[in-house]
Structures are given as structure tokens and as C-alpha cells.
Amino acid sequence: MKRLSALWLTVALTACTPKSAEEQIANAMQLVAEGEKVAAIVELKNAVITEPNNAEARFQLGRLEFEQGLWEESEKEIRRALDLSYPVVDAYPILIRSIFYQNDFDRVLMELESKPEIQDAQVTSTLALFEYLSKLKSGEQDPVIPAESLKQEELLIAQSYQTLEQGNPAVALNITQKFTTPSIEPFEKLILKGMIHSLQYDHVNAIIAFNEALDIYPSYHVARFLLAEQLIEDKQLTRADEQIERLLQLNPNSGHANYLKSLVYFYQDNYEQALQLANVALQNDAKPALASFVAGTSAYRTGRLESALRYLNTAASTLPPSHPTHRLLAQVKLELGYVEDVASSLDGLSIEPGQGAEIYSLAALQKLQKGQRAESERYLSKARSLDPNNPVSLLREGFILLDDNQASAVDSLAKALDIDPNLSEAWVLLAQAKYEESGLASALAIADQWGELSPINGEFLKGILYLRDEQETEASRHFSQVLKYDPENTAALRYMMIGNARQDKFKEAMEYAERLLALTPNDLQNLIDVVNIKIGQGQESELEEYLTKRIKAYPDATAPVSALAFIYLRADKPDKAISLMKKVEDPQNFGIYQALGDAYVEKGDFGQAIETYKDWTDKFPTDRRGWYRLISTYQFMNNFDGAMETTQQARTYFPNDKRLVLLEAHLAASTGRFAQSKRAISILEEDGSELAALAHTRGLLALNEKRYPDAVKLLTASYENNPGFAVSRLLAFALAGAKDPKTGLGYLQTEVDKAPDNTLYKFVTAEYASANGFLNEAISMYERILTEKPNDFAALNNIAGVHTQLGNYDKALAAAKAAFSQAPESEFALDTLGYVLIKTGDVKQGRSYIEKALGKAANNKEIQLHAAEALILDGDKVRAKNMLGRIYPTTPAQKSMHKALLKQLEEQE
């Protein structure tokens, strides 16, 4: 109320009678006495406006701004006061401290190089203290304390800072206990004490000190950063977040603030947000080692193994061997398949024997999965030697021995359970081993033992065992018992749902389904299973309404959106699917990416499909399905380089995935990287992969090397084992190379007839027929496309070209005009229409279309040849000759046309 009254009085008086600067200064001092410093600053600013050269007004304004933490403004006013001859003994210390608290320590030192002569011992001591502190904070090594210039209190501050800098916080704290004059540099003392307490891990007292410092200067953001760090250390995450938010409001791109925010999320197990903000911190050069550790650990926790590897490698290059970075880095390398790398460096890591045993046993498991049994046994032996009683290592040993030594496997698993009976996987594997060794009764005995510890788990295992023994009725009885113990057991509900559906008990299946979906509204697989049950009941027409209701009931769940999108795709409505899924921002379920990408593919928008699948692999890099779809879409677009690059990226996450190795071999052959293809094939042969898969890739390799007879043999074997359009296409090319294109066309036509709705198959077949001289067959295939899609641009344009080759100019012109109406700016439409026109005698107009096409695609050899022919027909022989001289045809058809045009030109000369 006082402040409002004072301000109102000021305004009223100003409106009536202008006050002098002296009166305004007096009013300001009265406001300061009343505790209204902000109002006093306003009054002093008015005084400066009234009399700009009033040194007292400038000084008092600068002094108050300093006390409010407005150091840049304070520096400006104090400098003006000094310029106006205000006493340096009063103003100069404030100037130096205002620069110091802007953290501009070099400028403090520069300013003090020409400091004025001051006789006052206290002021001299203050200036000497801030000169020393500026040297210390600007990075000068071991600056000397100017003890002769410092009074007792300032000397203690300097000595405490020096001792702290030398790594002796306990001694530094003892020095601070000798402070006797609270009025001398109270803020600096609090910062000092906070730093000492933080280095002693006394987070509570550090927090108190930094809070008290901020009470004096709330705008000193260094103190706020220090406070936030201590609050995080003390796990007061909510309070820390409040402080960090204040810092981010000032600078959203602050590297250190984003790092601290990432730590808050990290300790809250919100790894997605922690990773995002640690990235922002790294982009702004904040704590590269620690931010990389947070980012790497968060990436690992969210399944981004390759990203985790990159970040953790950065962190490990700086952080000491005892830091957990190194252990996590070893784990990530193992999961990525870099077993040898980890094993070779394991002795250098600060890892306990138990952890080492677990790492070696994991390495053994991975070697087994690669078929390298000798290496697996070697690592298993190391695991035993490090810790023979590690339960996790024993569990893995049991799994490794299951196939070759049932008795030893049982012993290892039983020993693991004796040590840690809570190893659920060990119970399941032991029951499996007993089932293989002695049959169902022996396995059920293991389930009974587990049931003594956990009745629910025992019943559940019995259900699994009966399912394996194909006794579904008994299995259902035990899963029902699980649900009596735990009505919300989702695994048991799922088994009951699927089991009843398999027996055509759809009503019962749907009862379990509704209970399951109520517990897992965002589980896409469960929802897809329910959709399939409804389809099995003949309720497909009701699915759209059913899923729409679920979307409304669970607005934050993306699974119902994905499922409905799949229904739209099933009904050949890709636009509806796309429209639905585009409403989902930042999908957290792979299904959205899958359905959206598939919709784009169905619509023929492969560029958008690629972007969607890329988003999928970025978001869920350990989901193989996203990688496979992205690779296959690149292949579909004949972008083998993109497919190859993506395959290699995927292999960093799945180094032992045989399908990816096979793809690499296949794509390497497709892009002429024969040595790489052969290396991949050798890996597959070592792993004992199926001959049929290798036959396909070997056939592709032979085709690319133009070993056509070998290619025909290999691809025929592949086709007979696994017929399909992709292999029939390669086989057709091999047969064409072996001078038997007609047989190749037959394979393609067979596959087209198997999938009559697939437009792409028809296009490929038509182009093959056209390229190999089967023009009528090509026309027939294009006509089939146009029957289904009368306005298909590519089919119209291509059929016009084939009709032109056959001399069917009327049909060619009609098709070319129809194609041109679909895409009047397309170079292909312009070229086709122009070429038909010159063939029908309309050379001038035809030439203009072709030249326009050439302007859009200057390097297209077919358009160049058509342009040369137009020039010849138009009598422009010189230009035609020059153009033909610049054309270097590559395909047989281009070479034939080039030769014919040269001959035609010679005949006219």
C-alpha cells in the first residue's frame, strides 16, 4: 500500500508541478528508507530524465540497480556518474563488482589495469579481492593472493577460495568459520559456502547457502544453476525443475539448463525426454561427457542401441574407468554383437566378478546364436571361472546346453534356481528341459515346485505345458485358475481369448477380449487379434463402428487408430487411412507408422512411405519390421543404393540377422558390389543358411555378372522353391540374356495371372515385353491396366509408344493426347506426343513438343534421339548431325535407332 501511495503521489505531483532532480532524488531516498527500492529506481530514472548530467542521480540509480541485480544497467549508470566526476571511492567498487557479476572476468582485469588512485583501505581491499577472484575464475593458474592489500575479512574469502581450488573443501570450510563481519561481501560468502558444501556432498547445507544467496541477488543465474544441481543431487526433483524452468524461460537454448533438465527426466525414468534434452545440451556444447552419458543411457533404455553406442563412446573417452559409462558401453556393444571388442577390454573395466560372469555368459549365448559353439564354450568357461555361482550366468548356461546336453542343462538351471528361486525364465526352461527329457509329467512336477513359491506362476506354467502337449482343454483350465488368483493377468486373458477363438467359441473369446482390451487399450497386437475374431464371426462390416467407438473412448491410445487404418487399407481406402493417422501427433506405437506407410505404398506415394518408415526406424530402431519395410520400399522404387544403405544401418542393430545379411548380399549384387555380395554369401554359408535363399542371391550375382546360363539355373531353382513375381522378374532377365526372352515372358505372365489386381506386375511385364520385341503382348498388358485404371498416365504414355513402334499412329495419337491431358508438363508426355506427331507428318508441332521435353530432361538419350529425328524430318540437317554426334547410346534399342538416324542423314546428303 505504501508503494502505491508513493507512486500515485509522484504521478499527481508530476501532473501538477514539475519537480526538480533534487526533489526526485530526495523522494527516491525516502522510498528506499521505506523498503520500496523498485519505486525508488523509477523515481531516480525520472530524475535522470529531468537532469541527465546529475551525477548524484546517476550514482544512486546505479547503486540501487546493482542491489537489485541489474548489473548491466548498473555499470552503465555508474560509468556516467564517474564521467560526471562522482567520487571514485564510492562509485568505482560498484563498477568493478557490476562487471564481475556479469561473469566478465577478463573485463574486470582490463578495467583494473587503469584503476584510479584510491586511499581508502577498505575500498582498496575490495578491489584487490575482486581482482584476485577474477584471475581465479578466468582460469589463471595459481594466482597469488595480494595479502598486503586485503583486510582480514577479504583475505579470509580469498584464502578459502584458494584452498577450495586446490581441492581441500574441509580446510576451506574451516577458514569460513573465521568470518566475523557479516556486512562484508555476504553474497560472495554464501556462494563460497554453497560450493564447499556441494564438494563435501552436503547437499542440504549447499541448498540453504545457494537459496540465501539468491535471496540477495535473484538474478545471479550462476547461483540458480548451482542450486538446481544440488537439488538434483539431493533428488528434490520437483524443486530442481522449478529452478531450471526459470533458467529456460530466460534462454530456452541454454546448454547447461537443458542438461540439468535432462537429468531431472533421467532420474524420473522419463528416458525419451531425457534423451531429447541431452541432445539439445550437446548441440549447445554443455558438459559433453556427462550429457553424452545421459543421452547414451537414455538411448539404451529406449531401445536405440546404435545411438547409445555413439553417445557412450563419446562419454567413455573422457570419464574415468570407474564410471558406469564403461560398463553400460560394454553391455551395449554385446547387444549389438561386438562380442570380441567387449571381451578384449573386459579386464580393463572396473567390473565385479558377478557382472563379468553375466557379460561373458551373454557373449557365450550370442556366439551360440551365430552357430560358433567352440567360441560359446570358451566364453562360458570364462563366466564359470569368474563366478561359478552367478544365477543369471547359470541360467544362460542352461539355455546353451539345452540342445546338446539335457542332463547338464537341468543341473545348471536347478543350481540357478537354488541360488535365486525368483528367476522365472529358469523355471520355464527347466520345465522345457524336463519335458524333452522325460515328458509332460516330469515337466508338470517342475510347475508344481514353482507353484509352491508362486501359485499363479505354477498354474500359468502348467497352462503353457499343456498347450505344448496340444491339450487345449487342460491348458484353459489352468489359465482360468490363474485368472481366479489374478483377474487382471493379461497373459492368461490373451491365452483364453485365442484358445476359445481357435475352438470357434467366439462369444467366450470376445468376453475375454473385452477384459483384455480394458486393461491394454493401447496394445495393437491384442486389438488386431480381436479384429480377427470379429472377422471370424462374420462381423467385418461392424469393425469401423467398433473401432471408432474405441478411438472416442480412449483418445490418447493410438492402437485403435492403427487398427482402423488397417481396416481402411483392407477395404482399399488408403486416403481414409492416411487422413485418420495424420491426426496422431508423435506416435508412440509402431502401428501408426506401419499403417501410414502401408497406406502411402498402396496409394503409390512411395516418397511419403519412405519418410514414414524412416520415422518408424528412428523412433523404434530395434523393431525389425520398420527396417524391412523401408528396405523393401527402396527396392520397389529400384533405389538399390538407398536399400543398401538402410540394410547396413539395420545390421548395426541386428548384426546376426540372416535376413539382413541375405539382403546385403542381394543388394550388393544388384549394385555391382560383387566382392561385398560374395562376402555376405560366405557368412550365410558358414551359418548353414538354406540353399534356396542363397540360390536366389547367387543367381542375382550371376545375372549382374552376365553369366546368364548360371543365372538361369540358379534362379530357376529359387523360383521352383519359392515362386513369386520378384524372382520371376530376375529369371526373365536372365533368360533374355540367354537369348530366350519368350520363356522369360511366360514366367512373368504366369505371376501376373496369379495376382490380377497388381498393377505393378503388369507394368513390369509390359515393359519387358516391349524391350524384347513382343509389342502386341505389351499392348495387351497395358490394355489390362487401362481397363482397371482408364486414366493411368504411365500406361497411356507407354502404350502410345508401343503403338508408334507398330505404326498404329491413330491409336498412338489418341493415347498420347490422353496421357498429355493428365500431365501436360511432363517431359515424357511431351516427348511421346511430339514423336507421334512427327510420325504422322505434323513435324513442326511435333518438334516443338519434343524440344520442350528436351529442355526439361536434357540428358535423356531417348528424347535426344527423337529430337534428332525431328530435326532431320524438318530439314535441319546441320543441327541433327551435331546432336547425333553428342549422343552416346547405351541400350540396344538406342544403339539401333542412333545407327538408323545416322544412315538416314547420310542418305539425304
Automatic annotation (TrEMBL):
Ranges of the TPR repeats in the UniProt entry: 456-489, 590-623
Name the record gives this protein: Putative PEP-CTERM system TPR-repeat lipoprotein
PROSITE patterns: PROKAR_LIPOPROTEIN, TPR
Keyword Nuclease found: no
InterPro entries according to UniProt: PEP-CTERM_TPR_PrsT (IPR014266), TPR-like_helical_dom_sf (IPR011990), TPR_rpt (IPR019734)
Record carries keyword S-adenosyl-L-methionine: no
Gene source species: Marisediminitalea aggregata
SMART domains in alphabetical order: TPR
A Pfam family of this chain: TPR_16
Keywords: Lipoprotein, TPR repeat
